[in-house]
Structures are given as structure tokens and as C-alpha cells.
Design goal:
alpha/beta; 7-stranded mixed sheet; two-stranded antiparallel sheet; 36% helix
Amino acid sequence: MKPTDPESFTGRASVYQRHRASYPESAAREILRGFQPPIRVADVGCGTGIASRLLATQGASVIGIEPNADMIDQARRASEAPDIDVRYSAGSGEATGLEDGSVNIVVCAQSFQWFAPEQALHEFHRVLKPGGRLVLMWNDKSDTDPFTVAFSKILKQAQAEAKRTGLWQKRNDSRDPTTHGYFENVRHWSCPNPQKLTLDGVLGRARSASFFPTDEDSRNAIERQLQALFEEHASEQHVELCHDTVLTIADRK
């Protein structure tokens, strides 16, 4: 599996939609801050449309761009509300299919790591209007909360095994939109975004990862570890996966 393989999430769209954390409304307001309606937003690598729907509820006109057919189908099913302006189209970070200068804002929510940076940044510059904005958005897990740290450690074991067997390759970890000279004036914003989970939610969150094993023995072994972890930390049958929602914001040159 290559980092930009559009099939990475095939078969995972439903569990991704149910169990991935959303983002705070305050993050959406920060993304749109300073623009006057109509605000056209491209959510590139939109997955099941979690960020697309959030931005649309804040008044933006959103097009979600996604290469995986299962994810787009799930996004469309989840976005049927008549009072939001959101649609979806097949495309990638490097080739969105959008017209030159057609959007005010490009958002990459948990997706920039899948793109080839130079090609994607060039593409975002092309589709943005003068004065446009690029936002990279992440839900970063806590490195101090005991449950979250242990959860991440278990998933890293699964990731390492997928890498060892050739089913996963290291992705682009850059969060610097100024590389290659297309964007400037970088600033950062963050706020806490904890996710309350039952045991089903903990298992579902793990299963939504692109590297989570599909063979029964490996899957069962990881899920036993997750269940034990849940039982150790649960209060009233819930745990909190602690994230901060982090925005990296830059302006089109």
C-alpha cells in the first residue's frame, strides 16, 4: 500500500464515519474567519465528510474532494440534510478537478499526510482565489493522558506490523505549508477536543485506521489489548480519548 493509495480506506468508511472524532464548531469559525458569504470551501481528502458537514453548518458552500469511492458514498449518505450546502467529487490532493481560482479556502482535515506535498501545495495555490487561505486541521492525541497514551501505543504496534509486512508505508509528516513557496503568513490555533467513547467506540476508532489488521488472529489480539485497556480506565462504561484540534493556517501568495 502506498501512502497515497486511494483504496487505503476501502471497507472502512462506515466504521470511520461512526467512530472518528469530529471537530469543534469554534475550529470551523476560525477557518472561516474574515471571509464574507458566499464562502466557497474545498475540503480535500474529505473522507466521510466530517469536516465538510461542520463547515457547511457554519454557512460555507463546501465541496468535498476524495479519491476513495466508499468514503464518498458514505459522505453523501451522511450529508442529505437539505439545509446545508455540501457536495462531493472524486479527486485527490494533487489533482482536485476544481477550476482555477474557484474557492476561498482549502481545508485538509486529517489528510495532508496522504499527499505529495509539492504537487498538492501547487494544486491548492491554483484552485484558491487571490487572498485565499489554506488550513491544515488535525485531531492530535494527548501525549500525557494515560488512557490516550496507552491507546496510541497499541495502535503503533499494529502500524509497525503493517509496515513490516508491506501493507503500510510511512506517510508525509510535514505540516509546513510554506515549503515550495506557494503560501505565507503561517499561524496556529488549537483547542481541546476530547472524545467520549464506550468499548464499542474504542474498538471502532481503532478499526477505522488504514493500517488496522484484517486477518482474524492479529485483529483479535489487538482488540483484546484494547478491551483490557478500556476496563482499566473506564468510568461509568466510558473513557475519554483526549485530542487537541490543531489548525495550521496560511495565506495564498
